[in-house]
Write a structure and sequence with these properties.
Layout (H helix, E strand, L loop, with lengths): L1 H24 L9 H17 L5 H51 L2 H20 L5 H22 L5 H4 L14
Helix pairs in contact: 1-2, 1-3, 2-3, 3-4, 3-5, 4-5
Length: 179
């Protein structure tokens, strides 16, 4: 019984140090789509390796049961971390896409401006739908983009064509004080 207690203590130390290193390694990783599977696989391997040093079957099984609970808790933490990284990454992708759409809208002919605005709205709405932006954030982003594009289009035009441009549908996105 003393030997089993000693072996279990040694196995807990081995598992805990390896498990802690494993869970901390996800702070540096960027492959968030693989977090859950990799964490479970690596943690189970650590647990099995540590458990194999315990000779007493009952003590070994108790050690494995407790370790599996810890792995379940860690998996939840890793999944949450993966989701946060996914949201950060995807929000960055949306911003990059909106920047590209902005440049397109500034140089586009009038019918393509409307298409660009529709594409921007769809892009932001789909990001809201999957939870990358809250509804409020998305609406603010849409409005800021519309105003920015309308101002940039007007500023990019020859002054002699600005009055006619202000009659276009996209110009309604300009705040009244700028029209």
């Amino acid at each position: 019984e003393r030997r089993a207690s000693y072996q279990a203590s040694k196995a807990r130390t081995e598992f805990l140090t390896g498990y802690t290193s494993e869970i901390n390694s996800y702070d540096e990783r960027t492959d968030y789509q693989n977090f859950d599977q990799a964490f479970r696989k690596n943690s189970k391997q650590l647990l099995n390796d540590a458990a194999s040093t315990i000779e007493n079957e009952r003590v070994r099984q108790e050690f494995i049961d407790n370790g599996m609970l810890r792995i379940q808790e860690g998996a939840e933490r890793v999944r949450n971390q993966a989701y946060k990284q996914e949201v950060d990454y995807e929000r960055g992708t949306v911003v990059n896409d909106l920047t590209a759409l902005r440049e397109t809208a500034i140089t586009a002919k009038d019918t393509n401006v409307v298409d660009t605005i529709t594409t921007m709205e769809d892009r932001i709405q789909s990001s809201i739908d999957v939870g990358y932006y809250s509804r409020e954030e998305g609406e603010k982003l849409k409005q800021a983009w519309r105003v920015d594009v309308a101002k940039a289009r007007i500023e990019a035009m020859d002054p002699s064509t600005r009055i006619e441009a202000l009659k276009q549908p996209w110009a309604s996105n300009l705040p009244a004080e700028l029209r």
